[in-house]
Amino acid sequence: MITEEQTKKEEIQPVVKVSNLVTQFFTYKGIVKALDGVSFEIRPGEILGLVGESGCGKSVTATSIMDLIPDPPGRIISGEIYIDGFNTLADLNRQAKIIIKSETNVKVKRNKRYIKRHNFIMSHIRGNKISMIFQEPSLSMNPVMRIGDQIMEAILLHSKIEIADSIIRRETMTDEDIRKFYEDAVKTKTHLDLRGFVHKWSQDYGVAEAEDGIIEIIERNDQNAIQELKNIVAEQKTNIKLKYIQLEREYERYNNLLFDLNLQLMEAESKNDSLKINELREQIKRTQAYIRSKFSGYRLIKRFIGKRIEEPFRREARRRALELLKLVNIAGPDRVINSYPHELSGGMLQRSMIAMALSSNPKILIADEPTTALDVTTQAQILDIMKDLNRVTKTSILFITHDLAVIAEMCHRVAVMYAGNIVEEAPVKEIFKNPKHPYTVGLLKAIPRPDVKVNKFEKLESIKGSVPNLINPPSGCRFNPRCPFKMDICEREKPKLVDIGGGHKVACFLFENADGSRKEVE
Amino acid sequence: MELRYFIIRRILLLIPTLIGLTLLTFILVRALPTSLLLSQYVNPHSTLPRSVQIAHAKALLGLNYPVPVQYFFYLSALFHGEWGFMVSNFYTGPVLTGIEEFFPNTLQLTIFAVILSIIISIPLGTYIGSRPNSVADHAGRIFSLAVYAMPAFVLALVLQIVLGRGAITGNPLGVFPISGTFNYALVPFPVPSWLTSPNTSALVSHPTHLIIFDALIHHNYAIAYSGLLHIVLPVITLTLGILAGIVRFLRAGMMDNMRQEYVKTARAKGVPENVIIKRHIRKNALIPTVTVLGLLFASLLGGVVLIEDVFDYPGMGLLGINAITSYSIYGVMGVTLVFGLVLVFANLIVDVVYAFLDPRIRY
Amino acid sequence: MAEVEAFKIRRKEEKKRSARMEDFLFTLKLIFHNRIAFAGLVITLAYFIIAIIDYADPRWLGVSNLSDALAFLHGKAYYPSATLVTPPTLAHGWYYWLGTTEYGIPILPDMLAALKVDLTLSVEIVLSGALIGLILGTVSAYYGGLIDEAMMRITDIFFSIPALILALAIAFIIGLTFTNIALAFIIVWWPIYARLGRSLTLSIKNMNFIEAANAAGSSSARNIFYHVIPGVLSPLFVQFSLDIGTVVQLFAALEFLGVVPVDPFLPELGRMMVWGETYLIYGKWWAVIIPAIFLMIFTISVSLLGDGLRDVLDPRQRR
Questions:
Q1: A116 with A178, same domain?
Q2: How far apart, in Å, are the Cα atoms of A278 and each of A220, A258, A264, A292, B306?
Q3: CATH value at residue B212
Q4: Min CA distance, C164 vs chain B (Å)?
Q5: Do A202 and A270 share a domain, yes or no?
């Protein structure tokens, strides 16, 4: 039951909101100021394109959101990243103190306790609420694990409770339940309705492997249908000790509780609410003690017969993995699931990556140049799959690329990055029709366009100069050394990203005053 | 399925290696000046003139044939178990019998050392490698380097002093015997037949020639226990020698793999850090480690010669050294050949393990 | 016009050279930054400097052989028990700080003098092994085909016998003397470098710049000398640094086994340890432990240097 109000509220709240993100790398050659106050947001169901030259900080932005910046040498210095309304960087200052003595002499004092907690929290968020696919599919898969195992790993990490529930339901199903299901199923009107109904039921009751058989029986609708149904369900049942499944489920549930408590604690700490902090700490301690006392025996048992306990979970996870592989249109999913990465082509691997990323219905998928390493036909297929997924599952996508044609094809909105800053952000049509920032204008001019007739001997226009060294970036606007419209103020001050109407934002002094207010020009 | 084919192909590849190995020992034997080779067959007290004796010996050794044909004679002799005869203080008799009697002891030491070092080094290397530049890392590195840099015989000597019984009077740590295979004082009188050997001054047990197992078979538990105590120090020395190497390579492999893209993927899936280390990184890091295991095993076999000498443990090493000091060419070549064979088969096992760990290799 | 072209080319060359210089300085900086590798470098250099001093004038280090030692003991500072191993003492000058070994030879100067022999030996062995291996490995890998296959089979055979045992067997055949054992070690050592050189060459051979050189009409020999060998050198140098310590150890081991005749007039670490072993059982540990530690420090620092070099030369480690 979702009311109008709730939907409205959800629409307002972005899935990911990044504000003033600063990420730096402390290298022997100096501090690389890779991100310099990046802000943007992604709304539910939206595809946001992030575009820019190589080395402008697109990938750093993505890895910062996932908190996968390799440390050392990199660290997020400041900023906020809201994932699903929760600021994952709330305890940033507690994690490490950074003492900058000079460009090449930086000391990072890490607080292991907070980093450990942060990792614990992030491991529940990553892959669950937010997923990522990478540029080189052949390098991004573990070469010594089967594709199926890698997808199953993701599934088992985040949907164990669901799987346990369905197994328990299946094992405790009575004849009465089956009869009731049969009567409901017969009542459905069309074939499609029936399929949907049976699909949901078989998912919930962990008998999805027999789904086709069940549909066939119900459609025949004859005398001994119920008996056949009972047989087919009984076949699916296995003699598993439900005790262990329940224990595993409980264990997982308490872990999730611990995660929730830690989230709340982090939030309370960022607000300096000492009363709540103490209360939550107490609660976390109690929960941990409880887990220890209740599950220590179970964990010991699991060391010895862990494989047997995992078996039903793995079976269900394998089925789900197959389903995911079918979802991404892979040819021969039964073969792919047993293959090693080196046996598959780049396109197949990238599809498996997408399947893996989608395993727990994430709110947002970050795609870091997912098609760069692929050939053109495969590229188009992958893009189609992602577009379809976005339409069907309403997963938001942050699409990172340097290819403007892909952006035009895929995205709803575009953010243009230059040297660690977002310089322009606008709906996709607007940016191609009416680019504002000199850099965007230059970027668009650099694309060869068959529809615009030019003299064959004329060169394509390119932006003069080259990408600045981010150890010593230009002062003020980082684009100023290459800008044809450079003014005095550009060297002194940094322009802010301001809205110039219609959701079109630009960071340039041509369109704003020094105080950040919008300039009324043209 | 694929693994099986890989193993078959690998076994077929053994043939050229084995031919090469025998060729090498053959060349070494032939490289010895002929007069030196023949001098062993000349009896100064014989009534036959020296030249006749030499001609006899030449015919006996097949030296009149062309060299390639001699190689086939050599091979056929090897196959028929005619490995020559050796005379020394330590062992006198056919070389092959000597090898049969002393090889089990060497094998026992190396196998114990390999198993022990793998059991210790894999968790240690994983722990150290997953925490680069931590205190544990530095301590582990320095320890492994120190052990690697210490000459094996010095390490053995130090262990003898610190843990050896009777090396220093009144040393509370000195519980392990420092030489031999077992305490001879425990031998019952008359000496049981399973403990005697016609060829050697040392006591050699039957049927396995391993004192621990033979004593257990014959229900002499005191001797079995004593035998067990006697292998402790040699095995520790050998273990320390290759432990450092494995830890070093595993650490490097862990650090190398930690930067790989697939680790990023695993993190992006939300896999907890300890699982990433155990399930993803370690499995990949073991692959390069396994490839150097063959080399480490070679150094272990070299080390065993030294260790047997220090601990006076009658094995192939002691046999080889005695063959050298008593100028017995067949003894030296027999020992060399056997060590070569062991290494060849060890490399076979290493390759199979490698293929098992890395699916990319068994195309 | 031509002058302008020449100028341009010169500018390019200069730029390249300055880039190379910068690269070298950066490498140095990284080594300095890596303190452990730097310590390794300093200690290794110290050992080599001592050996070089000994070459220049052995008197600077005190005794260098037994007859010198005895003359020294009776001539300058009388020491009562010249034939016994005596404990470390401070009373009779720096020669005795680490005690004496057999015949009352003071350990410290003996050890320092031993460096000359040991380092020369190991550098000789490893250098000649590396040179032979490098040339055979790179050439066979560069031409490939039958040569390469034959080379690999030959190295396979060498690798199928443990190095120490093969060296012993070879030395046994050619006669157990000091020089012959060194020769045996060279025979055992070259396959390691042949393998290494081969695998590195194979990876370089397929790189674009070799193809570009071929396209520009460069000959094979020129390619090998100007492109392949420089690319192979730095990893080879790492292996070289690791092996130098190992060879001294193996040599000492052979002497310990008693298969090499111990020359009392030659200062050598292995000989010192062999002498010392006799006294170990009487609790006179210094006669064997101190030379062992002296050798250990060398091996450790050389391998620390090697590790550091590997890290520094590995482009992935340069951040």
A1: no
A2: 63, 15, 12, 21, 64
A3: 1.10.3720.10
A4: 5
A5: yes
Do C160 and B17 count as a contact with CB atoms less than 8 A apart?
A: yes
Whether residues A151 and A126 share a domain: the answer is no
Residue whose pair of structure tokens reads 């030395």 in the numeric block: C171
Helices (H), ranges, A221-328: 225-236, 242-271, 274-327
* Domain that includes residue A192, residue range: 145-313
- Considering the domain architecture, whether residues A121 and A176 belong to the same structural domain is answered as no
Task: Please check whether residues A137 and A162 belong to one and the same domain.
Answer: no
- Residues 399..418 of A with a Cβ closer than 8 Å to B: which? none
Dig out the tokens for B99 from the structure: 């090898």
pLDDT tens sequence across B67-95: 889 899 889 989 998 888 888 888 888 89
Q: Which chains touch B (3 or more CB pairs under 8 A)?
A: A, C
Lowest mean pLDDT segment, chosen from A43-57, B205-219, B316-330, C88-102: C88-102
Same domain? For A301 and A263 the reply is yes
Number of independent structural domains in chain A? 2
Within 8 A of A262 by CB-CB distance, chain B residues are none
Q: Is A331 exposed, middle or buried (0-12, 13-18, 19+ CB in 10 A)?
A: exposed
The answer as to whether A467 is a domain residue is no
A138 in contact with B at a CB cutoff of 8 Å? no
Classify residue A479: in a domain, yes or no: no
The residue of chain C with its CA nearest to that of B333 is C169
Judging contacts by C-beta atoms under 8 Å, the chain C residues touching residue A73 are 319
Residue A32 in domain:
yes
Residues of B with CB under 8 A from a CB of A: 259-262, 264-273, 279-280, 283-284, 287, 357-360
Q: Are strands A74-83 and A421-427 parallel, antiparallel or unpaired?
A: unpaired
CB–CB of B28 and C169 under 8 A? Answer: yes
Domains held by chain B: number: 1
Which CATH number covers residue A365? 3.40.50.300
Residue B138 lies in a domain: yes
Instruction: Give tens-digit pLDDT for C254-296.
Output: 888 887 777 766 778 888 888 888 777 777 778 888 888 898 9
Subunit contact A73:C29, Cβ cutoff 8 A? no
In a domain, A332, yes or no: no
C290/chain B closest Cα distance in angstroms: 11
Chain C residues 135-194 with CB within 8 Å of chain B: 153-154, 156-166, 168-170, 172-174, 176
By residue range, what is the domain housing residue B176? 3-31+83-361
Six-digit token string for C227: 């492109």
Say if B40 falls within a structural domain: no
pTM of structure: 0.83
The runs of H, that is alpha helices, within chain B are 2-12, 14-31, 34-39, 50-61, 67-79, 95-129, 135-149, 152-163, 211-217, 221-258, 261-269, 273-275, 282-311, 316-325, 329-357
